[in-house]
């Protein structure tokens, strides 16, 4: 993908032609949105689209963050930053809070190499997401199949969901002497959870943002 395509079709609604500081987290202290501008470099292509390279100073800890960003013709803005926050501390505001809490604990468990906890929290989060999507059934197996039949999950996601359901089953229903969760298995469950959240919450939210930005244009 060319960098000139940044913000084309995906991103967050741009309030104006300035960087949305509320989307930037300090890579050192984790503070969000509280930055002072240090410098800016602007590059434009033949169509007049601008890519900006900003240097920001965190007003909390004083450290610098470099942010590369642009706004697409759809009115959506996307950015990349260095450094980024290496520890997960929050979740997107368009996720349900209970889902966000479970996901956060799963992610922090991965970061801390707590594989059993990561698999258990991710599996629990998967079931919670399914229930937010009105899945019915007496078990996780039936709930997954229910969303597949309704078309909420494509067949490949249903197949993958059953794989991670099995991976996390020992943690949800422990037995004496059971072996611990392998790192790759815990990572697989958390990776699936991330994709499930993207399909069920992120994509609908981004589509709504995109439609809203088009409606707002004069």
Could you characterize the architecture of this molecule?
The chain has 218 residues and is α+β, with helices and mostly antiparallel strands. It has two domains: 3-86; 97-206, Four Helix Bundle (Hemerythrin (Met), subunit A) (Up-down Bundle), CATH 1.20.120.330. It is 43% helix and 17% strand. It has six helices and five strands, in the order βββββαααααα. The protein has helices at 97-111, 115-132, 140-149, 155-167, 169-172, 183-216; strands at 12-13, 35-44, 50-58, 64-71, 76-82. Strands 1-5-4-3-2 form a five-stranded antiparallel beta sheet. Strand 4 (64-71) and strand 5 (76-82) form a beta hairpin. Helix 1 (97-111) crosses helix 6, helix 2 (115-132) runs parallel beside helix 6 and helix 4 (155-167) packs antiparallel against helix 6. The longest helix is centred in the last third of the chain and has 34 residues, at 183-216.
What would a concise description of this structure say?
The protein folds into 2 domains: 3-86; 97-206, Four Helix Bundle (Hemerythrin (Met), subunit A). The protein is built from 6 helices and 5 strands, in the order βββββαααααα.
Please tally the helical runs, counting DSSP H or I stretches of 4 or more residues.
6
Topology as a string of helices (H) and strands (E): EEEEEHHHHHH
CATH class descriptor name of the largest domain: Mainly Alpha
According to CATH, the homologous superfamily of the largest domain is Nucleotidyltransferases  domain 2
Number of domains: 2
Helix residue percentage: 40-55%
Which structural class matches the secondary elements?
Answer: alpha+beta
What general outline do the C-alpha atoms trace? globular
Beta content comes to 15-25%
């Amino acid at each position: 993908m060319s960098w000139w395509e940044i913000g084309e079709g995906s991103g967050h609604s741009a309030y104006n032609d300035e960087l949305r500081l509320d989307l930037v987290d300090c890579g050192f202290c984790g503070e969000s949105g509280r930055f002072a501008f240090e410098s800016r470099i602007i590059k434009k292509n033949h169509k007049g689209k601008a890519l900006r390279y900003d240097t920001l100073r965190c007003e909390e800890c004083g450290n610098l963050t470099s942010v590369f960003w642009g706004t697409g013709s759809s009115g959506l803005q996307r950015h990349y930053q260095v450094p980024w926050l290496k520890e997960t501390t929050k979740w997107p505001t368009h996720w349900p809070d209970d889902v966000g809490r479970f996901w956060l604990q799963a992610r922090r468990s991965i970061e801390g190499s707590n594989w059993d906890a990561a698999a258990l929290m991710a599996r629990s989060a998967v079931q919670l997401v399914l229930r937010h999507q009105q899945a019915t059934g007496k078990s996780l197996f039936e709930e997954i199949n229910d969303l597949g039949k309704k078309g909420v999950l494509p067949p490949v996601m249903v197949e993958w969901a059953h794989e991670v359901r099995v991976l996390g089953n020992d943690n949800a229903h422990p037995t004496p002497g059971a072996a611990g969760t392998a790192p790759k298995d815990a990572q697989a469950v958390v990776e699936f959870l991330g994709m499930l959240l993207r399909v069920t919450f992120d994509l609908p939210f981004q589509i709504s943002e995109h439609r809203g930005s088009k409606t707002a244009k004069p």
